[in-house]
What we know:
CATH class of chain B: Alpha Beta
CATH superfamily of chain B: Glutaredoxin
Number of domains of chain B: 1
Number of helices of chain B: 3
Strand order of the largest sheet of chain A: 5-4-7-8-3-9-12-13-14
Radius of gyration of chain B: 13 Å
Distance between the termini of chain A: 155 Å
Strand content of chain B: 25-35%
Largest sheet of chain B: 5 strands, mixed
Number of strands of chain B: 5
Distance between the termini of chain B: 34 Å
Radius of gyration of chain A: 50 Å
Largest interface: A-B, 24 and 35 residues
Largest sheet of chain A: 9 strands, mixed
Number of strands of chain A: 27
CATH topology of the largest domain in chain A: Rossmann fold
Order of helices and strands of chain B: EEHEHEEH
Structural class of chain B: alpha+beta
Oligomer: heterodimer
Amino acid sequence: MGSREDVGTIRESKRTKIGGATSTLPKAATGIRGLDDITGGGLPLGRPTLVCGTAGCGKTMFALEFLVHGATEFGEPGVFMSFEERTEELAQNAASLGFDLKALERRRKISLDYVRVERAEIEETGEYDLEGLFIRLGHAIDAIGAKRVALDTIESLFAGLSNAAVLRSELRRLFGWLKDKGVTAVITAERGDGQLTRQGLEEYVSDCVILLDHPVIEQISTRRLRIVKYRGSSHGTDEYPFLIDRDGLSVLPITSIGLAHPTSDERVSTGIERLDAMLGGRGYYRGSSILVSGTAGTGKTSIAAHFTQAVCRRGERCLYFAFEESPKQIMRNMRSIGIDLGRWEDGLLRFHAARPTAFGLETHLALMHRLITDFAPSAVVMDPITNLMAAGSESEVARMLLRLLDFLKSLQITSVFTSLTHSESLETSDVGVSSLMDTWLLLRNLEENGERNRGLYVLKSRGMAHSNQIREFTLTDEGVVLRDVYVGLDGVLTGTARLAQEAREREEEIVRRREAARRRTLLERKRRALEAQIAALRATFDAEEEDDRALDSDLGAEATRSEADRRAMMSSRFGDEEAPGPNGGGNSRGRRR
Amino acid sequence: MSKTIGRSSGPPRRTGGESEVWNLRLYVAGQSPKCVAALNNLRALCEEHLPGRYRIEIIDLLEKPQLARTDEVVAIPTVVRKLPPPVKRLIGALGDRQRALVGLEIGGEP
């Protein structure tokens, strides 16, 4: 009984301790875009953080931004103690990001100190410690009331001083001392073989360790950031791409966290009326992802350009990532099919052209992320995504797109991706990315009778009734035109074959009509002949009837006459009425009785 | 406060360049054992090799912390040979006599 209770108490106390730590751990915002999202607010307040990485991975920039943002945005002055770069060099580097370190120094927001330790100039003659450094740092902190400290790269001391044992114990003491001072510190260190830092500093700094990486894969470098450790706080554990450009450092907090995107019932036009009709009559869903895939020259860019135009016509912004052609070339080519993208450029439409091989995938992603955040478009076009394969493998591209799509969908941005497929089996070549897409339009060449024609069909379109028919797709001066294909006994016919077939049908129709007309005439004639015959017969019959009637009346007259003759004879001979007349008529018989 | 110890008044034992006065600066942080040892060792060294022509200036960084930066001090104790030029720097309590002599470029003298 007793022991069970004890276990329960321990568990509970442990839980409260952990819970308390996560909820109350105060943080110092870095002001570095994205990083504060990953860390849930910044670096541990009042504690040292170790930032390690290889040469040129951006450690100094990280430390510098941490201090400058602290001084300018969060009211926390900072001391930058550099062991590598002179203060002038540092100020120059900072100026490239638009920070005026010297001005901040004059305003006592930042204190810069370059600690120069040159082994050749120093003779070690016995026991020593680093109290001088402590005093120096302490004085700088107190002078401006600093809340933040950056030590870049303190490991340089190991190159300048030979007694590593002393240095280790002194650094351990330094980190403890910084904690006691209550300053939030960033300590940078070189990446070592088999361990995070060359001198094993991670053993001393145990609160937060951030690893910056700069791998070069197939001649393309990508900057990546990973939080190795963050005691007492939950944090993103992935490797996050980050950028260093004129706006400083930005980390991409894009992760495939979930599928909790908002969804919209609103539809947006594809820019092509017939295509809208194929997609349930109203086009794409807003915020959905559309894949337009096809072999070379099937008109993928044209479909994308139509969409772009439609977006701009609605007065919405569109961001066009061109990975193959220059914006000028795209605009010229699209003008030839009657789409003038130039009139929207630098207004509602922004192009971003980059060779896929210019940077690594992660950097592309980071760049896209930043551009999208800055421009806030309602639609994004990527033409073509397949070129990104040059910067990474298919699975990497798919992963990157997944992250990008999550980001786009969370912002309800409609995205059109074109994809160049090479293989014959079009439907299998895009498998990597197609499952991420809501709508998949497939363009294909239909080869027949020595010519190639374009066909378009909707392979899938989630959440809408869509046409299952292939449409023939032609590029005209007025843009893309979709036509019904001829589906006949001989299969699907397109292009001139369709035209020929239509012509043939028209001809046959004419022939059929003529035949019918001829038959009608024939029948008419027959009818007339028949009628004529009937008329003739009737005439004959009438004539006969007439004859018959004439005969009848003759007979009557004769009977009357013979009766009269008989009566005259009888009266003349006074005979009885026995003697029959020569024609024996009924009239005479009654009278004979 | 910094103190100056030395005997610049003593008569030079050697002629030529060796007649010039050595100006040495010792940076300490309070009265730690290392600092005290450094001062004692430095004094003994100077007495032996530079009798009568050295000056030792002691700077306590606890009192003048700003000098740590201006004089580029990291380790304690630090000895800086201001004169004769060039400037030489030694760190440590000067327990290693040979190294101290090499560092101060006093070596070679009897």
